[in-house]
Structure formats: structure tokens, C-alpha cells
Amino acid sequence: MTRKPPVDDFTDAGLTVGPPATWAVGLPAIEHAMLPALGELDPERTAKVAFSINHKKGFDCPSCAWANPDKSKPLEFCENGMKSVVWESIPTVVTRDFFAEHSLTDMADKSEYWLGLQGRIGEPMYKAADSDHYRPISWDDALDLVADKLRSLDDPNEAVFYTSGRITNEPAFLYQLLVRAYGTNNLPDCSNMCHEATGAGMVPAIGVGKSTIHFDDFADADLVIVMGQNPGTNHPRMLNSLQDTKVNGGQMVAVNVLPEASLLRYKNPQKPVGVLGDGIAMADQFVQIKIGGDMHLIQAVAKRVLLAEQVSPGQVLDWDFINAHCTGFESYRDHILAIDDDEVLAATGLDAAEIEELAERYLNSDATIVTWALGITQHKQAVGTIAEIMNLLLLKGNIGKRGAGASPIRGHSNVQGDRTMGVWEQMPAAFLDELGKAFAFEPPREHGLDSVNAMNAMDRGDIRVFFSMAGNLVAAISDSGRAEAAIRSVDLTVSVTTKLNRSHVITGAESLLLPVIGRTEYDEQATGRQVTTVEDTVCFVNQSGGELPPVSPDLLSDVSVLCRLAQRLVPYVGDIDWAGFEADYDRIRDAIEKVIPGFDDFNERLHRDHGFLLPHGPRDSRTFPTASGRAQFTVRTAEHVAAPAGRLILQTMRAHDQHNTTMYGLGDRYRGIAAGRFVVFVNPDDLTELGLSDGQTVDVFSEWPGEDDRVLRGYRVVAYPTKKGCAALYFPEGNALIPRGAVADECNTPASKQVVVRIEPGAVRADSGRPITV
Ligand SMILES: Nc1nc2c(c(=O)[nH]1)N[C@H]1C(S)=C(S)[C@@H](COP(=O)(O)OP(=O)(O)OC[C@H]3O[C@@H](n4cnc5c(=O)[nH]c(N)nc54)[C@H](O)[C@@H]3O)O[C@H]1N2
Ligand SMILES: Nc1nc2c(c(=O)[nH]1)N[C@H]1C(S)=C(S)[C@@H](COP(=O)(O)OP(=O)(O)OC[C@H]3O[C@@H](n4cnc5c(=O)[nH]c(N)nc54)[C@H](O)[C@@H]3O)O[C@H]1N2
Ligand SMILES: [Mo]
């Protein structure tokens, strides 16, 4: 029944381009969700997965961090969630013969699509320094090897411990504990490349870096402003919440560079009218902005709000809220009233009437939610933009109010939880104090390396071991060429993983693959079957436990790997019962309860209710854990980053058939792309000005002061209704073009959606699944 792994890699030879869609989901999404499941899994596995995903007693969908309604529908998943669990749970295992046949050099020429489809890794694998092949190794030997190597380092800071939001709370807590017991804070994570700016922008304003809304606030909002987000692909179930807003008479405004189909019209597949009818119009206003213009836009809207207050004093702003809860209003007001309107128009590419219209909607709304994702966070001024979103919300008291709030929409299903558990290279002293107290050891205090700085340290030759708990850093991080050279400089790379990816073939001298069970699979330990937990984008902690048997008997859980490594590496550090943690995950939760606020009666509440909401001062009681105890208006200066003549600003984004570096397929249905990935979207007017024609083969060069151009060759240029002056192509291939130095101010996130490029006619097209980068 199960498809055989592909022998040949994909090529773009069959690529087709059609018109972009004008609506999202509906019947095709049901078909796209269920066909892979039915084609790849037997009926029993399909049913087990379909009826337990996102259910209180089932497992949390690993695709995104969107929240679950209080009462789940019998089928509580979207097309892309189903694609992700099918990808994980296809019971095909990569064989020893495969690794004997394919050298690492050979696999380095393959795409992520080809690597992932080979199947699940079924047993630990080891590549020796003098070999170009992986061969099987026992768990004991593998873990001894890691512990011996780590113990041999002169300084624990010569090791880097990456993780991605794929892992759940319990392993995340143990991971940071292990790493700190070993003696370093080098804990970079995928958040460094994702929503880092969200915390950096929100915490100074309200003291908390997480969403201030409840899941059902969407239904009560007068206005939802969706900024820099493509929910139809990346958070499809969010469309149900936006539908609630609209059905209840609220409005939705989309601020985006691209006219994403789901922002225009939605057909709910779980409602008859969604399947058969025209669906529901989504954006009441579509604000098509230039890449990087959002900070100027928010300031301009705020200026109009402040001018309206001058015309009708006391009538416009929420003075009760500002007087009782805020500080810094006067200097903020004076600064915003002085911004230059012409610069706003140049930076946003909007006309004054569009800004006026958005301001009017905000003025007329008593309850506004602003949501955002990577279209806001992966830019030079990401932190400033988020600070301005907070300022705008404070003006009308939109924090801690029904139907209102700031709502960053997280990516990975547990990326928020991992941070709550202490996976961060710069955890505050209060957390380290509690951790040290609970386990009787002294955690290191010096801040560790984030993702970009970890690569810089590798370049300098300062890193000997790179350990990765889930994820695919070498593909996810900027500047692919330099990233690969950096990783190759270390002595040992270790990947705790489910499936093959590029980080397993671009390695240090020695390399280990440690295969683990996935979310869909059950986890048996000495005291019986275990569950773990995840935190969603609105701070709800959910239980997650799989129901499928693991695809191979030689897999461990993430928790087991960590506990067994810890017993070898740090057996005498502090008072930590690693064996007890492995046997009974309730004990891990007891430890979490001791160290992290908000987890009182963790086990009791989990076993009784299967989940609970974490406390949040600003949301729950308008208490603000800032230095002043008040919400803080901040003064920020927006800078217009213009492209030089003949250049465009490039964003790198997700196609519909991928999850970050994982490829389920090769299409991007809503944008009209099928059977290929090497396309660059350009506005038709820009094509004319650049002397290019739709469909032509081109090379894309990125430009960075003082450095050689980086290039992706052999792309097909697609005339597309993106904002004029802006181009787009897919991540992770696009990382070849993002210079290491292009990062967001203040938070070091790669500016992977704001890079200056030049597009020139090209000649050669890639004839494999890897793009041409020289
Ligand atoms: N199926 C699926 N689901 C996923 C993922 C996946 O890969 N596949 N990834 C998960 C992860 S880790 C994350 S972080 C999220 C990502 O979710 P998204 O943030 O939706 O991800 P992107 O595909 O990068 O889309 C970015 C959007 O921002 C817009 N944009 C780009 N630059 C700007 C700008 O300057 N201003 C404005 N206003 N808009 C801009 C783009 O046009 C695009 O619509 O999704 C999560 N969910
Ligand atoms: N140019 C550009 N770069 C970007 C982005 C962009 O928009 N543009 N987006 C950034 C963002 S938002 C993010 S979050 C990062 C993503 O960076 P990562 O999180 O590092 O990448 P993923 O592709 O999500 O990682 C997928 C891998 O996780 C492993 N995995 C999957 N499930 C499990 C599991 O259950 N357990 C374990 N142990 N392993 C598992 C598998 O090996 C799989 O190949 O990329 C960032 N990079
Ligand atoms: Mo992300």
C-alpha cells in the first residue's frame, strides 16, 4: 500500500504556472488532506490518526501552533496538518542497505524532498571521521561516544545545542537542564530565526512576550488586522476564527505584500455552504504594502488617531486605560505627530487614502486584534515594528479587553512552550536561580550563542560539537554556503531526529543520527504509557500522546535519549533523578511545577482536564510586569530601506506543500504553481522595466556591501501580482541568498524577507532537486 521511496530526485522539468487562486480551502483541501493519508497509510492507521489529532486525549498536530477550540470537532485538522502527520507516520524505514549504497557526498546532491521521502530512520547511525557512509551503531555506543566527546572539550562553551519547536515541553525542559548541568547556555533555537522579534518588541511594552488574547476573542472582535501572514497555508484553522469575526459583524484587514488567496475568500470545508457555495469574503480592506513598510504604516495610522483626538479631545483615546495603566504617552505622541508623511508613502508604497481608510476602521473599532507572523518578524526593523503595534493597541486600551489584543501567531507547534521551558540562550537570572535551587547546582550565567552567532563561532573555529534536538539548522539558517562550511568545521554533529534532512548529510567530521518516536506514536516507559504537553499560540497547555505503534523497535523517545545521555555526561551534577524522569514523565512535570510559574498542580490539572491556560498578567488583569509596573509607550524611529535603481527587495517564504525545510510535495496551489519550486515571483511592471519576460530563465543575485554577490541560477521568473518593487521565492533554497550579516536590529533574526536582489537573464536551468548556487 505504501509508496516506495523515490529513486530519482525531482527536477523542475514538469513545472507549470497557472493563475493565482482567489479563494482558499473548500473541497480541494479535503481531497488534498485525505488522499495522501489514504494512499500512504492503511485504513486503521488513517482512522487512528484522523480521529486523535488535536483531540484532548489524542496528540497535538505537529504542523503549527494554532490553538484548538474548547470542544474539538470529530475531525479537528486541516489539509496541511494531515500532510504533516502522514509524512511522519508512513511506516517505511530507511534500510541499512540504503546507507551502504548512498554516501554522504551523494546525498548532499539531493533535495530535502528526496531525503525526507526515504522514510523514517529506524536505528542509530554513525559516520566515522574517515568514512563517507553512515553505518549502524548501538544506542549504548552512540551515547557513550557523545558523552566522551563532550567531556573531552576544554570548555562546555565549545558545544552548541540547537533545538526546534518540534519537541514537546517535557523533553524541552530536560534538554535545557542537561545543557546547563553540562555548563553552557549555548541553546540556540528556531525561534531565533522566527518570532524572536516578537518577544523583543512586546516585553518592553507590556512585560510579557506572548499573545494577549483568548482563543475565542476572535468572535468578539470589531476589527482584526492580519499582518504579514499567510494563514491559508501556514495556519489554515485560523480561517475558522476569522470567519467567526466576520459572521459576528466584525471586519478584517489584511496587510500583505502578496494577495494571498485565504486573505481574500474562505470556503469552510466543515460547513455545507463552504463546500458548495461561494464561501465568505475575508478582507474588508487589503493593504498591499511594500516589504518592510509596516513600521511606517503603523506609525501613520497612529498619527491619524492622535490627530482625531486633537479634533475631539477626550473622545478618541481610551484615557481611562492610559491614565490607569500606561506611561510614556506624551513623548510618544509628540514623536508620532512629527513623522514625515511623504516618507511613509515612499516606504509603504501606499496612497494616503488607503492609510486613511485603515485609520478610520481602527478609530471606529472598540475591540481590535492585531495578529502577525513572519511578514513582520524577519525584517531589519522587526522589533521596532512590533513595538509600534503595541503602541497602537495601547492608545485604545486594546490589551486585557474582550475581543481585543496583540496576537503573534507562532510557527512550530511547541515553539512557544520550548521557550517557557527555558530553551533560550539568554534566560533571565530569576529562572536560572529557580533551576539551580530545584536541582542543587549552579547553572552557568554567561549568555549563550543564538543561531546566527553559533554559525559565526563555528566560522572562527570555536565550536567542536554541534548537537541538534529536532530541526534542520543548516538548511533553515541564512547564507547556506557559509553555513555548510561552518558546520563542516566541527568535530562531531549529533542529530536527534525522525527523518533524514540536509543537516544529516552536511556534517562535522564524525556524525550521529539518533532516531526517535514522533508525535503520532505511543511512548511506553517503565511505568506505562506516557504523555507530554505543548503550549499553543494563545498560551494553552495541551496534552499530547500518540496512538500508533513506533515504526521501528529501535527508536527511543526524546526524553529517553536525554535521560540516558545525562546519566553518562553529568551523573554527579546536582541532585537530578534522570532515571526517574525517564520512567515516569509525571516526575518531569513535578520538576517543571517547581521551577516555572503558572504550572501549579500541573499533573493534577493535566490528568483531569487534559490541558489548562497559563496565566498572563496583561491579558487577565491588566497588570504589567514591566520595571514601572505600567504598560510603556515607546518612541521609535522608522528607517526607509529603499532598493537601489534596477533592484528589487526579496522575501523568502513557504510554498503550500512544505513544512519549513520538509517537503510533502512540490506545489504551491494557491499561487498557481505545480510540480516545481525554482520560481521567482515579480510584479509585471517590474518585469517590463527590467527588460525581462514572463517565464524567462533568470539568475537572482543578492547584494551585500563589501561582499561578493550570492546567486541562485536557473529560476523561472513568474509575472505575479506582488507589490511593485518586491520579489519572492521559496525558503529553504532562498537561504543561499540571505547574507549572514542581514539581521534584524536588536534581535539578530536573519532578515530573510528583506534582501536587495538583482535579476538577470540566465541560461542554465537546474536539472536536479538542488538549485545552482555558483
Ligand atoms: N503548512 C505549513 N504550516 C506552517 C509552516 C510551514 O512551513 N508549512 N511553518 C510554521 C512556522 S515555523 C511558522 S513560523 C509559520 C509561518 O507562517 P507565515 O508567517 O504565514 O509564513 P511565510 O510563508 O513565511 O509567509 C509570510 C507572509 O508574510 C508576507 N510578507 C512578507 N514580507 C512582508 C512585509 O514586509 N510586510 C507584510 N505586511 N507582509 C509581508 C508574505 O507575503 C507572506 O504572506 O507557519 C507555521 N506553519
Ligand atoms: N530564508 C528563510 N529561512 C527561514 C525561514 C524563512 O521564512 N525564510 N523561516 C525560519 C523559521 S520561522 C523557522 S521556525 C526555521 C525552521 O527551522 P527548523 O525547525 O530547524 O526546521 P524544520 O524544517 O522545521 O525541521 C524539520 C526536521 O525536524 C525533525 N523532526 C520532525 N519531527 C520530529 C520529532 O517529533 N522529534 C524530533 N526529535 N525531530 C523531529 C526532522 O528531522 C525534520 O527534518 O527556519 C527559519 N529559516
Ligand atoms: Mo517558525
Automatic annotation (TrEMBL):
Keywords recorded for this protein, A-Z: 4Fe-4S, Iron, Iron-sulfur, Metal-binding, Molybdenum, Oxidoreductase
InterPro entries: Asp_de-COase-like_dom_sf, MopB_CT_YdeP, MoPterin_dinucl-bd_dom, Mopterin_OxRdtase, Mopterin_OxRdtse_a_bac, Prok_molybdopt-oxidoreductase, YdeP_MopB
Top-rank taxon, per record: Bacteria
All copies of domain Molybdopterin dinucleotide-binding, residue ranges: 648-733
Pfam family, one: Molybdopterin
Residue ranges of domain Molybdopterin oxidoreductase in the record: 120-497
Keyword Manganese: no
Cofactor requirements of the protein: [4Fe-4S] cluster; Mo-bis(molybdopterin guanine dinucleotide)
PANTHER family: PROTEIN YDEP (PTHR43105:SF4), RESPIRATORY NITRATE REDUCTASE (PTHR43105)
Family membership: Belongs to the prokaryotic molybdopterin-containing oxidoreductase family.
Record-given protein name: FdhF/YdeP family oxidoreductase
Organism: Gordonia liuliyuniae
